[in-house]
Write a structure and sequence with these properties.
The complex is a heterodimer of chains A (305) and B (591). With 305 residues, chain A is of the alpha/beta class. In chain A, helix 1 runs parallel beside helix 7. The longest helix of chain A has 14 residues. The two termini of chain A are 13 Å apart. Chain B is of the alpha/beta class. Chain B is built from 19 helices and 21 strands. In chain B, strands 7-5-4-1-3-2-15-8 form an eight-stranded mixed β-sheet. The longest helix of chain B has 21 residues. The chains are: A alpha/beta (305), B alpha/beta (591). At the A-B interface, helix 3, strand 3, strand 6 and helix 4 of A face strand 6 and strand 7 of B.
């Protein structure tokens, strides 16, 4: 008899929620979380405060490492799933290890989104998705005084505040697509610009970013259709997209995320997707965050027993 | 410069180049100015299979022992390295080959077993080595390259030691190893750029004598040469063989001779013969060989002939655990053999003492005309420490023979009864000083006698002589605060380093704890030991044997039972293990 073994790919809120729910609903099931991230679950929304020095790294973490052992959850950090064989029910890791599963939960979270026209400048931009990114920002900010913010996702305004608190000179490109997928009307854009300026942000109103070029060790030249300026570093904040490239040739339905039904099941038996990795086949469900992990596993955990 | 204290393990299958990699790591870190203590563990079989492990403790402060936990594991064979996982410290780092020739199952995977706080550095070791040098054999060097890059060890340090090791083997082999190292170094810099932890920035090298990496065995070999050794007789046995190998190469350069004998009995016989004829000689063996020597050792006692015998202890009894460490020949060294055969037994505690005590053993043997047994063990013989190049002062190589004066010519009493018990010894062939030397009991002239009174008198003489040798033997060294102690820890041999570190840690935690290092095991300094015991509420004696052999020897000096901590595991006792015992004793006393 083979044991029940749930493999969860990911280590974010959805993955953790799924693991804990499994522990609750199927206590005899072996649970393994595999994450490319080197660190345990943390609170990404606190990263700007961490960069600003208002929090210690320890305060970012949700729970101690010992928690996983105590709860019988095998947490495998810094290990990347590169392939899934749904027929054989096994995942392959980058270091050529094969792990079998009876149930699989894809909860990989997202990666920073860079709009296609800007991807050519990707090397000049920094993002803030992980603790590792935060450390890179801290290091970079220690030797630069000005930052250009591009994009207006949930993090960008908080990070702008963090930069201002550090005394940095902040530029913010504002156009009608800055807060994509919301399109800003002229009126709202003016209100946003006014608020930013009142806090000391230099608003750059333009229609198009034409060029980024490193001109020295310490500065990047930014050319827009209206301005030309030099800054120390450029931050890109366009939200996240599901990081599911490893599923590309596995036969699973992937659009912007893994397609699932209303029970978060994929078309393969025993395979689920939760969190940012999923995309519903019924669009009217809209976006469901990490609680979906709990919902799914309360069903799937029982069905596996 | 922040304090560094890191233990690194290299683990692989025999033939993977594990020991070579560990050795180069030790050399490089020593070149960088760090304190290093390294120890290898390998299978007893000649080659082909079995786990090899090197452990290196590297630090900015003085290092006296290996500790319990490993901070960095370099795996050259994951199947072998899996067993090392339980010994990893929290937040340790593991280097491994992430592109093995075949896919591995979860249950066979090294990565599947590590704790989540462990940093995994997967590198295609074999591929990198093959691309860099045309052969996968250099993957041990590739792994070292990864280690150096991640932990900020200047690559030049490794270049230097790799060159030193492989240059004698030709340019092709040297280049292959250098290229393999560099491939790993550059791969790690590129792929682990966000995980570089440059903790090994070399400290400023102190002015003074050059430091070398030296094993206990090598130190003994060097000391023997410096002592003016003329003849070495031996039969190979682990862990003493490297002494013989070293002397086989070096002794002829100084005009000496090394003879591989048919067995250990012949070896000790030849050593006694050489000293009898006035030439410094020695043999080195391990427990099973020492057992064979015991009858002739007592012949040396009875005939009062000097001899130097190095007993490199290993796990016993019998063939036992040839490549594991143990301190279980103490009884045999002190009491082994027929009759009341008192002899001198000394035990160095570190590599420097291996050198100086070997020098001393020749002088003691000459002056006290008796076999001197130098007790080491696998852990001490095979561990490497970086230390200033040891050199013998003229006083350490001086001739301690006590020759008869001219006035006794013609009426020479080889075994004259003297106050000190030492009878001046003539070298055979000296005109007017002829004598007979025999294993039979004898009178002052050397002729056999079975008289009860004579046997009593001569036995007393021989024991008086050995008792008086205490004056020339190294006294116990105490490391204690003033006043009474909660716990006193007594150590000997290779365990002393762990004892001293444990006691130091206990004192840092506010405990009143002291240590006593005993290096003269027979005769021993009763008074000093008794005084130390008197001020300790508890006496703890950690030993690498099952019977508590030192506790058996000196335990009677304490007013109550000593606490024995006997470990017959074949592996060294870590300081942290002793610290736990100390704290348990303190807690038990506090209740």
């Amino acid at each position: 008899m083979t044991e029940d073994h749930f493999v969860i790919i990911g280590n974010g809120p959805a993955a953790n929620s799924a693991a804990l729910t499994l522990r609750e609903c199927a206590p005899d099931t072996r649970v393994t979380m595999i994450s490319r991230e080197l660190v345990r679950q943390y609170k990404p929304k606190l990263l700007p405060d961490f960069v600003a020095g208002k929090l210690s790294e320890e305060e970012l973490y949700v729970r101690p490492l010992a928690f996983y052992k105590e709860h019988g959850i095998k947490l495998r950090l810094g290990q990347e799933v590169v392939d899934v064989d749904f027929a054989a029910r096994r995942v392959t890791l980058a270091h050529k290890e094969v792990v079998g599963y009876s149930g699989l939960i894809i909860a990989v979270g997202g990666k920073p989104y860079i709009p296609a026209p800007l991807q050519v400048f990707e090397d000049f931009m920094m993002t803030l998705k992980t603790i590792s990114d935060a450390h890179a920002w801290i290091e970079r900010l220690s030797r630069t005084e000005s930052v250009l913010m591009i994009g207006g996702d949930l993090t960008s305004l908080a990070f702008t505040r963090a930069l201002l608190s550090l005394g940095k000179n902040v530029y913010f490109i504002l156009d009608e697509d800055s807060f994509w997928p919301l399109r800003l009307t002229r009126e709202i854009r003016d209100q946003v610009a006014q608020r930013l300026v009142s806090r000391g942000v230099n608003v750059v109103e333009c229609r198009r970013l034409k060029r980024l070029a490193r001109v020295s060790e310490k500065s990047v030249e930014v050319v827009t259709d209206t301005d030309r300026l030099k800054v120390g570093v450029v931050g890109a904040f366009f939200g996240l997209v599901p990081d599911v490239k490893f599923l590309a040739h596995t036969g699973i339905h992937v659009e912007r995320g893994v397609l699932v039904d209303e029970h978060l099941k994929t078309r393969f038996d025993g395979v689920y997707a939760v969190g940012i990795a999923l995309r519903f086949t019924i669009r009217s469900f809209g976006i469901i965050g990490f609680p979906s992990g709990t919902v799914t596993l309360k069903t799937s955990g029982r069905s596996q027993r | 410069m922040s304090k560094v204290d890191v233990t690194v393990e290299v683990c692989g299958m025999a033939g993977d180049g594990t020991i070579a990699a560990g050795g180069l790591l030790n050399e490089a870190m020593s070149e960088g100015g760090f304190s290093v203590l390294g120890f290898d563990s390998y299978p007893a079989e000649i080659r082909g299979f079995g786990r090899c492990v090197t452990r290196s403790r590297i630090g900015t402060n003085e290092i006296l022992a290996l500790d319990e936990w490993t901070h960095v594991l370099i795996s050259l064979d994951d199947a072998q390295s899996r067993s090392r996982i339980p010994g990893l410290a929290e937040n340790s780092s593991v280097f491994f080959d992430n592109n093995p020739p075949v896919y591995v199952r979860e249950r066979d995977s090294l990565a599947a077993r590590v704790e989540p706080g462990t940093a995994l550095y997967g590198m295609p070791l074999a591929d990198l080595a093959a691309r860099a040098a045309g052969t996968e054999r250099g993957r041990n060097m590739t792994a070292l390259g990864g280690f150096a890059a991640v932990f900020g060890v200047p690559e030049e340090l490794f270049h230097k030691v790799i060159t030193r090791k492989f240059q004698p083997k030709g340019a092709k082999i040297l280049e292959a190893n250098l290229h393999s190292f560099q491939a790993g170094y550059e791969y790690a810099l590129e792929h682990f750029s966000d995980r570089i932890r440059p903790i090994f920035r070399p400290p400023a090298k102190p002015e003074g004598r050059e430091k070398v990496m030296l094993s206990g065995n090598l130190a003994i070999g060097r000391a023997a040469i410096d002592a003016g050794l003329k003849l070495y007789f031996g039969y190979p046995i682990t862990p003493a063989t490297p002494i013989m190998e070293y002397l086989a190469a070096k002794l002829p350069e100084t005009g000496g001779r090394l003879v591989q004998m048919e067995d250990e009995i012949a070896s000790i016989g030849a050593v006694l013969g050489s000293f009898y004829a006035g030439k410094r000689a020695m043999t080195a063996t391990s427990g099973p060989g020492f057992a064979l020597m015991t009858e002739l050792i007592t012949h040396g006692v009875m005939a009062e002939i000097p001899a130097v015998i190095l007993n490199a202890q290993r796990g016993g009894p019998a063939t036992g655990l040839p490549t594991k460490t143990e301190q279980s020949d103490l009884h045999a060294a002190v009491f082994g053999g027929p009759g009341d055969s008192c002899r001198i037994v000394i035990a160095p505690t570190n590599v420097a003492e291996c050198y100086h005590y070997t020098l001393k053993s020749f002088q003691l043997a000459e002056k006290y005309q008796t076999p001197v047994i130098v007790l080491t063990d696998f852990y001490l013989d095979n561990r490497v420490e970086n230390l200033s190049v040891p050199r013998a002062g003229s006083e350490e190589t001086a001739d301690w023979n006590i020759y008869p004066d001219e006035s006794s010519k013609g009426d020479y009493k080889r075994y004259a009864l003297t106050e000190s018990g030492i009878s001046p010894r003539s070298i055979p062939g000296a005109d007017g000083f002829s004598f007979s030397a025999t294993g039979l009991e004898h009178v002052e002239k050397g002729t056999p006698s079975y008289s009860p009174e004579n046997h009593m008198q001569m036995s007393e003489k021989r024991h008086r002589k050995i008792r008086n040798a205490l004056a020339d033997l190294p006294a116990p060294m105490e490391s204690s605060p003033e006043g009474d102690l909660e716990v006193g820890v007594i150590g000997w041999g290779s365990t002393v380093g762990s004892v001293l570190e444990a006691v130091h840690s206990a004192r840092e935690r506010g405990h009143r704890v002291g240590a006593l290092k005993i290096t003269s095991l027979f005769p021993f300094h009763e008074g000093v030991i008794r005084d130390f015991m008197a001020k300790c509420r508890e006496i703890l004696i950690p030993e690498l044997n099952f019977e508590g052999q030192l506790a058996n020897l000196i335990g009677y000096l304490h007013t109550k039972d000593v606490v024995r901590f006997n470990r017959a595991t074949g592996v060294p006792i870590a300081p942290s293990t002793i610290l736990r015992e100390i704290e348990a004793l303190i807690q038990a006393g506090g209740r």
